[in-house]
Amino acid sequence: MSMLELNEQQLSAQLAEQNVTMAEPVIVDCEQRDALLARLEEQKAAFKESPFISRELRRVNLLKLEKVLRENQSAICEAIAKDFGHRSSTETALLEIFSSIDGIIDARKQLKKWMRVKQRHTSVWFWPAKNKVVPQPLGVVGIIVPWNYPLYLAIGPMTAALAAGNRVMVKMSENSAHLCQVLKDAFSTQFTEDELCFVAEEGNTGPIFSSLPFDHLIFTGSGATGRKVMASAAKNLTPVTLELGGKSPTIIAPDYDVKKAMKRILGGKVYNAGQTCVAPDYLFVPEDKLKQVIKSAKSIIKGRYKTTDHPDYTAVIDATSFQRLSDTLDAAKAGQGEVINLIPYSEPDPQTRRFPLHLVVSPDADEVVMTREIFGPILPILTYKTLDDVYHFIGERDRPLALYLFSNDKELQQTAMENTMSGAFTINDVMLHVAQHDLPFGGVGPSGMGHYHGREGFEAFSKMRPVMHQSKLSAISLLYSPYSGFARRVVNYLINRKWSKYPN
């Protein structure tokens, strides 16, 4: 049966389940659904015609990907600035265009190594058979892209999927409408739609898209939406990679220079106005260094921004996010913590959606600022007496996407790593692990599942297919049923031939 003949009631039920929080019933846009299914069917048919793309053609596809980004830099920056309301072209060029191109170049360089057939050990009982693992393309990969880094979080998975020899459908966020159009137009000059296509958000596109029977689906976004995506994909047994978020803790250890730490922490926090899934979400500092931390923070930000009208200060994405941050700040002011505006000549402006960076000092653990991911320019600061207290606090909460430790003490670094769990662990900086091509990027537990970037991305979008090649000479036939007395003696010997040394 064609995918276009999927039962409409079944799809409606899937969409309804994904929107359980909506008061109104879900209305399925049949025309949109049919168009997406047709596009997927077209890509699947093209894949069946050419199920294994050569290394040279994959390199060409990566070169075309790079070419599009290089030739459309200005248009990309302008589109993202429109989508945000304001974002510096330099920030977009650094965090999204450069990072994307650098990842493409690395994939192209590593492709021969990644595609290499890997010989595997053969158990001595099966000699002279041979084993190997062959990476093969999965087929069609679906990518659901968030709005906060809409280029980088589209191109990163796309690079891995194309390197692995797949075809790709990309669903952009409703907050990235201008960028989506630019990418559609730009990539249509290099790729046919049965190779690569972009899908704009049109009201209910997300739930429909995640219900399609992709060969792999990757979603980047909130944990709440990630659960719905996973539930929808499960109906097709579609494997998923979920890159979610959470509250990434940062720790300044007693031995580390406070000013240097705060310079790096605030540098990462201000990027994209804190709208980053791996941004430092809250900060632990030694009790006796709290005043120094606050003083350093004020000095550092004062030297960078007089007001939020600075051309390199990014706006909050939309009115809903701005209101959420305003409510979070108001709740913090009503709580027990001290709220400090680090750009005191500016207040949150709903017209421009510029939101100055704030500290919330010593909030209560059950306040909103400490229970929900902030995803904006607000940084809570907690003090500690012992690092064991810090590890306990972190361990009692959801496992975060990242954890940052500032310390030059190698023993302390090891202890912190062993006593915590997170998607990534960065020492003496924040966020930079995401830009390392040879490090897998992904969460753990509520912060996500699966990885991509580098080899891990290539393997995530490949079937690492085990292949066993039996030899002309094989004694396995001696162990076929019905079992002879010889076979029984062989089995007894295999099990009891040598006892291991067990602990007492």
Automatic annotation (TrEMBL):
GO annotation, biological process: aldehyde metabolic process
Keyword vocabulary terms for this entry: NAD, Oxidoreductase
UniProt KW Oxidoreductase keyword: yes
Alphabetized SUPFAM superfamilies for the sequence: ALDH-like
A Pfam family the protein falls into: Aldedh
Family matches, as PROSITE patterns: ALDEHYDE_DEHYDR_CYS, ALDEHYDE_DEHYDR_GLU
A molecular-function term among this protein's GO annotations: aldehyde dehydrogenase (NAD+) activity
Record-given protein name: Aldehyde dehydrogenase
